[in-house]
Amino acid sequence: MTEYLTEKDVRDIAAYTSIGLTDEEIPQMTKDLNNTIEMLKPITEYDLEGVEPTFHPIGSLSNVMREDVEVQGFTQEQALENAPAQQDGYFLIPSILGGGDQ
Amino acid sequence: MRKLEEVLQDWEAVIGLEVHAELTTLTTKMFCGCKLEFGADPNTHTCPVCLGLPGALPVPNKAAIESIVLAGLATNCDIEKHSMFYRKNYMYPDMSKNFQTTQGPIAFCMRGHLDLEVDGVGAKERIDLGNLKPGETGAADSTAANVTRTEDGYVAHVGITRIHMEEDAGKMVHVGGGEGRIAGATHSLVDYNRAGTPLIELVTEPDLRTPEEARLFMQKLRQIYLAIGISDCSMEEGSLRCDGNVSLRRRGTKEFGTKTELKNMNSFKNLHDGLAYEICRQAEVLEEGGIIYQETRHWDPSKKRTIVMRVKETADDYRLFPEPDLAPYDLSDEFINRVRAKLPELPDEKAQRYADTYGLSAYDARHLVDHRVTANFFEACMDLTQGDLAKPLANLIINDITAHMNADEFFDLPTSPLTPERAVELVKLLADDTISSKQAKQVFTAVLEEDKDPAAIVDERGMKQVSDTGAIEVVVDKVLAENPDKVEQYKGGKKGLLGFFVGQCMKETKGQGNPKVINQLLTQKLGD
Amino acid sequence: MDLHTLGIADLRRGLRSKEFSATELTQAMLGRIEALDPKIHSYLEVTKDSALSQAKEVDAAIQAGAYDDLGILAGIPVALKDNLNLKGTHTTCASRMLESYVSPYTATCVQNMLDQGAIVLGKLNMDEFAFGGSTESSAFGPTRNPWDTDRVPGGSSGGSAASVAAGLATVTLGSDTGGSIRQPGSFCGVVGVKPTYGVVSRYGVVAFASSLDQVGPLARSVEDAAIALNAISGRDPLDCTSQHIDTDFTANLAEGVKGMRIGVIPEFMEGEGMDDEVRDKLNEVMNELKNMGAEIVEIELPNVHASLSAYYVLGPCEAFSNLARFDSVRYGYRDPGHKDLNGQYEASRSVGFGPEVRRRVMLGSYLLSSGVYDTYYYPAQQIRTLITQDYVRAYEKCDCILMPTSPYTAFKLGEVKDPTAMYLSDTFTIPINIAGNGGMNVPVGLGNDSHLPIGAQLICPAFKDENMFRAAAALETVYGSACVAPDFEKAGA
Prior knowledge:
The complex is a heterotrimer of chains A (102), B (528) and C (493). Chain A has a domain at 7-44. Chain A is built from 4 helices and 2 strands, in the order ααααββ. Chain A has helices at residues 7-16, 25-39, 41-44, 76-80, and strands spanning 86-87, 90-94. With 528 residues, chain B is of the alpha+beta class. Chain B has 3 domains: 4-316, no CATH class; 347-460, no CATH class; 469-525, Arc Repressor Mutant, subunit A (Orthogonal Bundle), CATH 1.10.10. Chain B has helices at residues 4-10, 62-74, 211-228, 268-287, 333-340, 347-358, 362-368, 372-385, 390-407, 420-431, 437-450, 454-460, 469-482, 484-491, 498-508, 515-525, and strands spanning 11-22, 78-79, 82-83, 85-89, 99-103, 109-119, 147-150, 153-167, 171-175, 187-191, 198-204, 240-250, 260-263, 295-300, 305-311, 321-322, 329-330. In chain B, strands 1, 2, 6, 7, 8, 11, 12, 13, 14 and 15 form a 10-stranded mixed sheet that branches. A 3-stranded antiparallel sheet of chain B has the order 5-4-16, with no helix packed on it. A two-stranded antiparallel ribbon of chain B has the order 3-17. In chain B, a hairpin with a 4-residue loop joins strand 14 and strand 15 (305-311). Chain C has 2 domains: 3-259 and 400-490, Amidase signature (AS) domain (Amidase signature (AS) enzymes); 305-379, no CATH class. Chain C has an 11-stranded mixed sheet with strand order 1-3-2-4-6-5-10-11-9-7-8, with helices on both faces. In chain C, helix 2 (22-40) runs antiparallel to helix 3 (48-63). Chain C is globular. The two termini of chain C are 25 Å apart. Chain B binds chain C through residues 48, 51-60, 87, 89, 91, 93, 96-99, 186, 188, 190, 192, 315, 317, 319-321, 324-327, and chain C through 83-85, 91, 93, 98, 101, 104-105, 107, 202-207, 209-211, 237-241, 317-318, 320-321, 324-327, 329-331, 339, 341, 345, 365, 368-370, 373, 377. Strand 2 (90-94) of chain A pairs antiparallel with strand 10 (187-191) of chain B, so a sheet runs across the interface.
């Protein structure tokens, strides 16, 4: 089995996706991801010279737009209905730099 | 730290700008029907789409696409018919989906340019024009390759890499720390009213060489955006924002240095001063043998320095990929031509027309079109005079009216007591020597303060200028007779005394003597 | 009367003729859910009060003689996969992340059902965020297969298939990204339709992979599925990828397959990698179609074997980005007590997301990273072009393609532990999500060995979904419409 990702790589990816993994979870995740990436091998073996990608299935669609007309949205209460924390009409979150610890 | 002028003798500054403009003149956001409004209560203009709720999907605002195409046409860009939206993935709480919908390698507008006319003091920042003569362009392999000398400065040809369509983020307020700053804050508050505001980002080539050029580029771009009506371009409210990339290289070398990115330059002055500071700072670091780090720096106008916000150790990896929720674009010629038909006369074209039609200098014509209101005012005056008195009217607008506008931010020319009719009347009084230029300034002020016609003010105040040669000759003779010593000195070569004699004569005539006539008689009598 | 066994046409007839009222029907269904759902756990939320008040409105119309003004689903008991937003209900996606999330808006497809008078009984269990093929990854416990409660119902729309098979709803909506409607349809022995991409609006459907997701109906008869699709299909100004559809999917159900050209892929009929009973059943189905007058045509799809790899690139990449919004700022699980945002992000997403979600999000993030993008993501999109072209060429020779839905029948809970092995179960369903065309599962009886439901998959050209409905309806005349699973009522909860 090719090792596409090391445990260090997996830690970096976890940090990038903001998913906290414990030290105990890292080896299993590394194994699972490597297994899956191995499964993707056929893609790397294809000769795709000159083949256009299909980023949008059913390709005939283009230029789908709306007119610049106002549509009634949420009230402040509705907007904040699912907020885990709020203050004065705003969504409330902890400090971005972790200043609350200082 | 050394002064900018000195630093630029040894170093060539390489500057590129990234200019964000919110399309504030639209009714709704980029991808949803929420209203665009500055300063509303927090989170009162949101919906599933701009709050990034699970299951919500974007639908692009057609008017926004028209606006960016208009911006591209106005800045000499090629309009790309085939382009797509992409997702730029990064987690930040003001970005509700945690990706920004933006464009990929191909933007709606590519490969544009603007020509900047640099003159006056600002032109002195450019030191590589050497012995270029007016009309000459720097050699292709020289640092002045994109520069053409003019009579009173030079024209710089600045490339525009692209203008792409994207969406703005929400706004954050940091609480618990000092002065709303992020550092030391214990909490942050997020408001998504601004999230999803249509935003166009223009990126220049690294063609700018002085802070003045950067400032003029921004000013010119703002004029264009205002002329085509796509944004209110308020640097104060953040609807027009500018970041600068700056690096230095030794004069005569070709390799680019490490660049820093400069933020928070929210006025033309800050843009100039921030860049000037950063150039001097980098020069100092380099001259002391230090190295420049690739970092983002923040211009602090109160402390007059830039400070590090964030060091970029590696290039950001935004995991960019085509947005599957949005259809690709395939703009038709018809669409582009329909937008082109909306293109108004642009400031450069207008200035050219003023120069051609009214015989104004390039300098005067350009400054008339600096503001839409002054250009409109000038044209209204020209309608009244059938094109006569263009030069004095241009002077009135460029000097007096513009100064007044700069001094009083609430001054609104179109609704002020100074109508085009009164301006024309005032200039006519000056032109036929009824009043002196000094008196004209008094009348100008009086019109604004008292809301009366210039002729009426001149009458009321008895401000007629005396141009009668006979009357003035009496005064001139008197003054010369009273100052024999000065006359001796003048004749001995102290020609600067002419001003003294003129002043004395004006005093004698209580300011009403025609200075031209006085001058003429004095020089005659003093035997020049 | 066993109202829970009736299809839409019979229910409508009964309602119109006042044989039973909408309230009685709704109460009967709610009573059944209360009594029997604990045995299979197909519902995550039962919307009893709103269902009864909706029924009351339908009854008022019936009393006023205005039943036929109400719409094609008036009074019909339906239920929704829990990734479909319905204002005022929880939309959890079977995830801790959204356990307490209450939808402030309604998905277009759901609104279309409501506009046609459907009565929503509740929200249905699924694999967490639709990642999986067994409904075992639901954060709120698995759903069981009504045909054998030791077995999985398939997934990710396991609750949508199981509830229909158990007679706990007449029609349900599911979503299908790589087989998530058709495979559970096969495991539970019900009709499950993945329409052509763009037939149904995705607005309000919590996204897994935007370019692959499509909502479709599950029902016990082809006709019921066609009626439901009539209700939910069409252009939605809120979804740029939805298209104008004016097809009546019930129009040609009685036409039979005489003269239809049905494509088969020889390797698939030979049964490589599938259970013998599935292979035998499939050949039997092919012969039945031939007997009814269809022309069987051999076709080839040379690039289809790369579908699985392409899918496990595209799906995770889009999912990584789609799931980035679950950050505990505006909604969703917030791990308590954090003083810095990053710590809160990591803890909330780690606790809020189950293992399969974490795996796919991380995989997608890796596959899109610079350098890696060109190795996997871009080629996967090129392969999508090749696969789509394969189908276009195949449809020059046929109107519809027949293949298995799943290589095997329902497996036992806990039997498939390795995630990669689970991924392989979607081999036959994934290609058409890649190509975007439509496909559906038709129940074709029980396996000789397993005595569990087996499904045949019918696949149609893009925006020719009526073709597969026509062939499916013909098969139904042979195998009968799906019945309510007979024995689960006796099983222990």
